[in-house]
Amino acid sequence: MTNLREAHAHLVAHGRAASMAQLAGARSASDVLERLRAAADSLPPGAWVLGTGARPESWPERGWPTLCELDSAVPDRPVLAWCFDYHAVLVNSPALRAVGIDGATPDPSGGLIVRDAAGRPTGELLETAALLAWSAVPEPAPAESLACLDRALADLAALGFVEVHDLKSQPWLGPMLAELDREGRLPLRVHLYPLVDDLPAVAAGRLAWESDRVRLAGGKVFTDGTLNSRTASMLHPFADPLPNHPRGTPMMTAAGIESAIGVCEGLGVGLAAHAIGDGAVRAVLDAVERVRPRACRVRVEHAEIVDRADVPRFARLGVACSVQPCHLLADVEALRRLLPHRLDRVLPLRELIDAGCEPGRLLLFGSDTPIVRPDPADSILAATARRRSGEPAEAAIAPEQAVSEAEAWACFGAG
Ligand SMILES: [Zn+2]
Question: Of the residues 106, 135, 164, which one is the last residue of a structural domain?
Fold first, then answer.
């Protein structure tokens, strides 16, 4: 297959993740401590130790190391380790001090500072609390960002992609890509989706950098959290929810989603709405139904759980469903533990296509790299077999939702 499109990527983050401590392959919480300690030894004094790809769900301990364990592994400098889904971090005490979080700090709006029985932070920070910690990490210099971008573009081009959609584009990304294009160093087309909050400013400068190779395609919003962090917004409670959040945490009100559609409509661009849980997916479709935008093409990003009643609404409303089937391969344990009662609603690809979501136009595949690797073979496997390679047929998640290999490749089609 040629002319592949990666419909959901984070270019700079993909390049930057390559320079962090790699926690994806860690087999346990103590293995993570070992990797962070080794990374600290290789860095100049005082530099932040950054890690990426942690999957606490998959370790025998079923969770992060304690703050005390992390502090004894790396006592003398800040540590920030990302959960693979980029919606949660673990930080050590020097990092908590650098961010200004202690036992008296209230949860930021849309975030959670996880605390022990005595009310002390455990080092685990969710959603906006994780972003707060990340904002304390020194920004990479422009030359370093450029190197990250270069590496990401080369990685994706090597996999056969001719077009990539960047789904939370930094305001400086368009100009940087245009510069690369002028120098003949842009190997594929890039569509940009900056946060809706940044969109008016980015759109105001677009004439200076837009071309047929680098395009401002729309705005991005987050309407819920993630499955693994149990912050996805669900119609039904999680089997093992966060305290006080049985159905996760919606991150936007109905009025907020409508107003984001309005901003994009006014600028004549699309809207990509992150919605993982079935509650969030429904909230986006409801908002489109009420607003009925004309110029603004709306996409739902992730749609990992979709209620049966909402499946036909995508094609009817002209809303594209932008999914990452490859996440199924990584999320099996979390799905079985958190949503045993909703496994039949995970990525209903068969139903979506049968309900009129044309592959490549209204049903798009991507990887969300660096959350998982961007090899399209992973999504082809997940979409057609609904299980990891080598696993028996009984291990499949909602096998009735499998699609054919030709349909799956068509969802990667850039035309
Ligand atoms: Zn993403």
Answer: 135
